[in-house]
Design goal:
Number of domains: 4
CATH class of the largest domain: Mainly Alpha
Helix content: 40-55%
Radius of gyration: 32 Å
CATH architecture of the largest domain: Alpha Horseshoe
CATH topology of the largest domain: Serine Threonine Protein Phosphatase 5, Tetratricopeptide repeat
Order of helices and strands: HHHHHHHHHHHHHHHHHHHHHHHH
Strand content: under 5%
Largest sheet: none
Number of strands: 0
Length: about 400
């Protein structure tokens, strides 16, 4: 059956008056259920009659435990509709009301977080911090949901109250700081590093710390702060063997890579599961300043191979980035002799890309560099001639100079 307020075609104001009067005058009226197991208080919450709900809590807080067919109390509905004053009163009357879960495993605090009810969440943290132990079916605390909804003020309040809250994990082993990093909440992450730097060692189910996510989402200043606080954090690998430096290179975050090369150059030797260092990744993004510093500090970093036998110079050449190749030829000629598992030097890739300036520099340095054969027996000169023959768009005049009669095949 439907309640009295819905049987009669009343205005919203009239329905409000009927509910208020019925609640005050008819014993147990608020506990009567309709066909959907809804009480009058569920209706009042849906209608927005917060004064009726406050009256109910004052009269009998246990009314806040009555559920409808969806396992919702009227407080779940009140949270969805943004009635912060009702929820704060519920916390004052009986904190257990904030532990009751609906059909989706959420308390009214989880819903309050979804709706951005900051004062309710802060009140809950002050009232009983153990409310964070009540999690959804996917083990989310209301702080996880607060992070999803960009509620920095709540997260900062929580960290100031108890930094250890940053260790609580959901089903994916994510802390709310992982989510804060995904949402680019830099202020929250800065405070976390100040309050308890160990929070930056927590790894999710993919093996990633929140610093991995900070790198992925371009938060360079967080990575620098973390590195300056504890460089060891830059050595933590995820399940793909990547440190946050690998992700930083992917995102073109040169500052943290340069800082690493200047202070912990040995970290440039750390490989991921593909055998790549962050310099291999940097080469893909043409982070020329980073690669230049690496060459200047230790040219042997350019000898480190990935699982395809490639150095970062092979990758630079394959991507068509010439500046670092010319520097490498001038710095250490032997780098141009290194062959990957296809037998190619970076000059083979340069020839395929029509990078005449690189090949000319190699020719000037040592013409024999252009005669090295790959696994198919092709030299750089063969590739150059093929370029000319195929009439590809290249600087042919410069390429043809390399086929001068001075070069003997």
């Amino acid at each position: 059956m439907e309640h009295l307020t819905k049987k009669q075609k009343l205005t919203k104001q009239e329905r409000h008056e009927v509910l208020l009067k019925a609640f005050k005058t008819i014993p147990n009226f608020a506990q009567m259920l309709d066909d959907y197991s809804q009480t009058l208080l569920h209706e009042a919450a849906e209608e927005g009659f917060s004064d009726v709900l406050i009256l109910a809590l004052n009269k009998n807080p246990n009314l806040g435990m009555l559920k409808n067919v969806y396992e919702q109390t009227f407080l779940h509905i009140a949270a969805r509709n943004g009635f912060a004053d009702v929820l704060i009163m519920a916390l004052e009357k009986d904190v257990k009301l904030a532990t009751i879960k609906n059909f989706h495993g959420k308390t009214f605090l989880h819903i309050a977080a979804e709706q951005g009810l900051i004062n309710v969440l802060i009140n809950a943290l002050d009232k009983n911090i153990n409310l964070l132990n009540v999690k959804t079916f996917s083990k989310e605390t209301f702080l996880h949901i607060a992070a999803e909804n960009l509620l920095s003020e709540v997260l900062i309040y929580a960290l100031n109250k108890d930094p250890n809250l940053a260790f609580m994990q959901d089903d994916y082993k994510k802390t709310f700081l992982h989510i804060a990093a995904e949402k680019k909440l830099s202020g929250v992450l800065r405070l976390a590093l100040d309050k308890n730097i160990k929070s930056a060692t927590m790894q999710d189910s993919l093996g990633r710390t929140y610093l991995h996510y900070a790198a992925f989402f371009g938060l360079s200043e967080i990575l620098i702060k973390a590195f300056e606080s504890n460089p060891q954090l830059a050595k933590i690998k995820d399940r793909q063997g990547r440190t946050f430096l690998h992700y930083a290179a992917d995102k073109g975050l040169s500052d943290i890579l340069i800082l690493t090369l200047k202070n912990k150059i040995e970290y440039a030797e750390i490989k991921n599961s593909d055998g790549e260092t962050f310099l291999h990744r940097a080469a893909r993004e043409d982070l020329n300043t980073v690669l230049n510093i690496a060459l200047e500090k230790n040219h042997k970093l350019a000898e480190i191979r990935n699982d395809r036998g490639q150095t970062f110079l092979h990758i630079s050449a394959d991507k068509g980035f010439s500046q670092i190749l010319i520097k490498a030829i001038k710095k250490e000629t032997s780098l141009a002799k290194m062959q990957d598992y296809q037998g190619k030097t970076f000059l083979h890739y340069a020839a395929e890309k029509g990078m005449a300036n690189v090949l000319i520099e190699a020719f000037k340095t040592d013409k024999n560099l252009l005669k090295i054969k790959d696994n198919r027996g092709e030299t750089c000169l063969d590739l150059i001639m093929q370029k000319v023959k195929d009439n590809k768009k290249s600087d042919y005049s410069k390429l043809i100079k390399l086929t001068d009669e001075n070069i003997e095949k």
